[in-house]
Amino acid sequence: MLNQLKLPEYADVVKIPYDEEDSECLEGLRVDGPWHPDIGKYIERYHIKALYLNTSTGWSEHDYSFLKDFTDLVGLQILDGRMRNVAAIESLDKLKYLDIAYFPDEYVDFRKLSSLKKCSLGYPRNIDTLFDLETLQSLWLDELKLKDYSRLKNLTDLRELYIGNSPIPTLDVLSEMLALERLSLVNCRKISDFSPISLFKRLKYLDLRGCSKLESIDFVSQLKKLEHLVLGHSGSIRSIKPLSNCLSLKIAALPNIIDGDLSSLEDLSNLNTLFIQNRKHYSHKCVKKYWGDPNMPEPLICKK
Exposed site from 32, 112, 221, 269, fewest CB < 10 Å? Predict the structure, then answer.
């Protein structure tokens, strides 16, 4: 009988649901101290499937060469601004979920991560091979700066895309992502033409916060499945009349509306949460941000 392995007191087994659609949670190891050989032995003996490493909670190892030995890992989450030898993850061909908050300026051949379906990277550099992964379903990229944004065109099967704080100049490079259900473009201040969004007929969630050149939302009239719309901190838009076609809309956060006509909101019977600032030139007044009981809806706005 094998002797029971004990973890250092700063390591613990936790369960984190990496994918909300998955019925099971990944059992993973959170390490809040330095790497120790016994941790590796524990991972292998007890078939640990995920690692959670965060310097803000005590993780103190910055050399990630050790990862190459744990080829059965399915989930990996790292918050460490001093990472090195991150290319060791190339050995993790069973990895499905990858979250690195501060991606180092090192080359990684993401094509070797042949099972990866959900990827989140902050400050990504040298990620050109990431755009060749046909398995990706969800991609989160913060502080994205590319020489050639057309590489995004390859990701035609994405269901979820987040691009934040990026000088991406055009949405034409996303026009083939027809499977998208969630799209977030946060603080992407160089985009001026948002019309390609109208192509995403499956879109349920749209976040354009901080897109300061957003002036028209005519494109949303084609988004019949849209349920959640966030346009806060994006300057002023001409009108919200295109929302009258968004009959599935449940939640909306709206910026200043130049024509002041809020009557389109009256026709949205599924709308149960509204974030909007009352202004003198508006035709209606927001009287309630959300319904107390969705089965007994009350008006969110009323005419002045």
Answer: 269
81-137 pLDDT, tens per residue? 999 999 999 999 999 999 999 999 999 999 999 999 999 999 998 999 999 998 999
Which ranges in the chain belong to alpha helices (H)?
37-45
Burial 53-74 (b: 16+ CB within 10 A, else e): bebeeebebeebeebeebeebb
Q: What are phi and psi of 302, to 5 degrees?
A: -140, 150
CB 284, CB 301: distance < 8 Å: yes
Q: Are 162 and 184 in contact (CB under 8 A)?
A: yes
Below-50 pLDDT ranges, the chain: 1-2, 23, 296
Find, among 123, 119, 84, 117, the residue nearest to 102 by Cα.
Answer: 123
Q: What is the pLDDT of residue 1?
A: 36
CA distances in angstroms from 54 to 34, 42, 49, 58, 283, listed in the order given: 11, 19, 17, 7, 49
| Pair 61, 88: CB distance under 8 Å | no
Residues in contact with 22: Cβ distance below 8 Å, sequence separation at least 6, in sequence order: none
Q: What is the dihedral of CA 18, 226, 196, 213, to 10 degrees?
A: -90
Amino acid at site 74? V
Centre a 10 Å sphere on the Cβ of residue 4 and count the other Cβ atoms it contains.
8
